[in-house]
Amino acid sequence: MTTDDIFGHMFQEFPENSEWDVVIIGAGPNGLMAAAYLAKAGLKVALVERRYEIGGGLATEEILYPCYSSNPHVIYHMMVDYMPVIKDFNLDGPSLLWIKPNAQTAMVFEDGKSLLLTQMIEDTKDSISKFSFKDAVNFGKVMRSWRRIVDEIVAPATYVPTMTPIEMSMALQKTKVGQEMLELIEQSPLDIINNTFENDRVRALMLYASCMWGLDPRETGIGFFVPLLLDRGMNKCYCYGGSHKFASAMGREIIKAGGLILEHAEVSKIIMQNRRAVGVELAEGRTLRSKVVMSTLDPHTTFLDLVGAQHMDKDFKALIDGWKYDKWSFYTLHVASEEPPRYKCDDPWINDAFMTIFGIESTEQLLAHWDNVVAGKIGANFGGHATCETLHDPHLSDKPSKHISFFQMHAPYEIQGGWEKKAKEMEEAVLAKWQKAAPNMKRENIIMTVHETPVDIETRFPNMRRGGIKHGDYKPIQLGSFRPNQECSSTKTPIEGLYVCGASTYPGGLVLGGPGYLGANKVAEDLGVKKWWKTTPEMDRYIKTYLT
Amino acid sequence: MSRDERYDVVIIGGGPNGMTTAAYLSKCGLSVCVLEERVECGGACETVEPIPGVRIYPHAMLMYASPAPGFEQLELHKYGFRMVWNPEDMMRSLTAGNTTTQGVTRITEKDAMGFAKLGGLLGQPPFTRELMRATFWCPPHPPEVEVTDENTPYMQVYKKYQPDVCTPELRDWTMFELMDEFCESEPFKVTMAFAAWASGAAGHWEGVAIPALLSVQLLILPNTGKLSIPRGGLHGYFHAIHRCAVAHGAVVRTACPVEEIIVQDGRAMGVRLRETAAIGGRKIWANKAVIAAVDYKQTFLKMIGREHLDPSFIQKVKDISLKNGTLYVSTYHTRKPIQWNKKFKAMQESETGVAGPAKVASGGVYPSDSRELYYENVADCDARKSLPTLPPEKLMWFLTPSQAFNPTDCQGRYREGYISAAFEVNVPVPEYQIEGIDAQDKEKAKLDAYMRKAFSQALDGLEDENIIHLWSATGREVEFRNTGLIGGTWCGSRHCRDQSWTRRPMPELARYRTPIEGLYTCHQTTGHPGGLCLMAIPYNLMHILIEDSIAEPGKWWYPSPYYIPQKEKVSAIPR
Lengths: 548, 575
Description:
- Chain A is of the alpha/beta class.
- Helices cover 35% and strands 18% of the residues of chain A.
- Chain B has 575 residues and is of the alpha+beta class.
- Chain B is built from 18 helices and 21 strands.
- In chain B, strands 1, 2, 9, 10, 11, 12 and 21 form a 7-stranded mixed beta sheet that branches. In chain B, strands 13, 15, 16, 17, 18 and 20 form a 6-stranded antiparallel beta sheet that branches.
- The longest helix of chain B is centred in the middle third of the chain and has 15 residues, at 233-247.
- Chain B is globular.
């Protein structure tokens, strides 16, 4: 006999079966956004998350246990200036504080010379002119045009349903800015950089900054990412109090609007009935039935694991099977240290920079390193970027006056020799290289380290398959109206009642805030719910110019 | 620029006490702001994933709160509260026996019946919930009321259902004396006493026998007799409380440490944030109350200017004793599972019923031979040496019950190896260490090695080559992480008679009021019944806030049946 037999349960639990308007799978940035918009629109929304904490990549966690927290995934918030969610929920000020340092991206070289990308164009030009006056002038000129491309087209388009490539090129013909963008699309990032700049070190910095999030430098058809990632790379924000604060702020909006969040709730399947998605079943056994299911997971998990191939027609299944993950992922070494890294270089601003690239001496070396990574290797020629998080946020360290930094580099998911063995070796190599660039990063100043390999990324976030932070490669046939495929890029899928709105759906990952926003719009329209939010003036201008 | 803000109530500290109070008060319709200094709320109710797929609970890991009125009053089920039920029941885990240097000793029938009787299981009807609620979920009596056998809540419950438990000495006894009366085998008594020591009220302290025993029973009986935990651990339980607060309009600000409680004319007016605080306004004003859901040191020695408190009160605050030691917690990640060695085969066999990812050893107190051994451990902890002087074979340790028994536990996906249950050892509080406050931090590697030797007396698998990771934290590291866990102590100030019930932590603070008007305390170190994340302090505090006309709850509210209203105050009993 148990005490249960004697006096029953002491308390009530969340019910075994419940009914909702919308169930959203995955409480990453997109799931949170979609849930917040729809809950506030009066729908009964449940957001279910596998992990013990919401946020997905918006994580701030004590991975250097005990006492030191880090932002193991998202730290550089590039779309804060544009994301509608921030204005629509009035998150700036009352809930969130963004730090946007002027010194954004530094690059230090072995000989002590350095380059610095700043928010303010003239400061960057000053830095470039140390190497090439011509490049400094060109930088100013192209950024004038590229910022307009971002401001008027790419940024607002992030929050507007996508067009087919043909529609897109016709629309872009309408304006001079659009025509400039069309010219860029045709080129590879490497061509654009080489055509614009003459000095090799300037080229190396620009190439790193535009391709670091997973662009193939030699791929054509993705050239518009260069202005976007360079401009946004010069406007990165840090979320004060840690990236997770952004997730918490959205989480509270969901709760305030009457929505539900369940953590530790892994979905085992999407319930299908009469060819419709009608809810989800959790691994723990509970079911949540709903009019609409929205998945923010990668296409393989959503369609093959949760829906099941038997519910898809052959052609659609072929599209899902064809989905490709990123060619590379990241290896990150997190470090708690007595001092912030102090780089030996010719510019005192470097030590205030948000991001510092080191280990890269030339474009040739950078390309060789990336080629290595794609081939499953990391050679002695590796380089990467580092950030000292505590320079911007004292809350991450529980111990006063200690510092937390990380070094991150491109790395293959499958590495020769295997990560189990390689990870420790890499740690030694990284620290040696770091100490070369910043002499005070020596062992006796280091309190603790922890590394995250591509396999670790996948273990923490199983839908970042193969360590892919964007849930799938950025290449022309997986972008725009092809993300994740032509059937699903509007967020609506061929399966009635099922929507997809994660990083693998247009416009993509990196906390753009696009897929979740577009998914919410689509579901609100399809369920006939009045939208309480309005498009931003930038979006209105874009729609008026290019879509009408 | 951020501007000052104003709320009815400002709560300092977003741990379980602060957040539960926020939930209660926002449900009363008050505007509430919670200020948390860390990047995540939860305080001791936290989950950490130090390496991917490996989840550990640095502090609160077991569910003691089941009888809390808060589940019902705050409707936590609506905010996603779920449990992971342990397939093993109480009888099975109890009958496994106790671990001594001689091997496993069986629990006798008298032990089991004594335990059941004191826990209210043998009454007609069983009165466990009422007994627990009377003991923990009732505010201490007002100062004008003399505490007697007749008005002590747990005595009233025993009188009603199990009168033979009540003796004139019951309220004076130590837990050992109580166990001598009702149970039989020494290892069982020692195990219970040690578990109580780890839960905050030790087996050898006078006058706290019943609360000490019931704090252990809270673990077992109310969870339908199973040592079960909330889904997502205690942080999952905390999420439900947090969301209840937010759903009722509470504003929660993380990364917002409070520098000062603003006092004017003897009244708490609000708080001033530290300069580095993330937004929210530099000063946050409170119309009705400031609630310090942080420890007494921060509240009275740091946040309030000395000029507002008289020196005799300050002296009393400084004299609050933490001297029951602090828990040093170790969690191992091993290649092969840690298992009881041959001598303790019966323990290992009792684990076989446990499903889930890791059939690792769990649930034991070793060595539980005798109370002399227990006293030797107490004396060693009180010796204030940072490193124990007892030989490792004599060190008493507590291996917690398993927290991973469900195959659908989606966090237990470590790629290799096994995660141990947490090991707990009582060690001196840093500030009492004669070699200095940071002595343990400096000797951490030695301390870890010593403990490993102690654990290896009964367990296999702690050899160097089997260990992938060890996570442990010294008292000082614990305090750095969670400032309110002063000295790393889990249950705060010692729960001896001089610091419990109407004297917790001193008579002036017992009813959660303070010498500063409008300032209330709500923390395990400052209020009855103390720690264990029970939602008890906030429930008890509600009575006081109703008395002071700050909170006016709706029909959902019910007070403790054993509560006595203070003279000339509004009664918390609804009319």
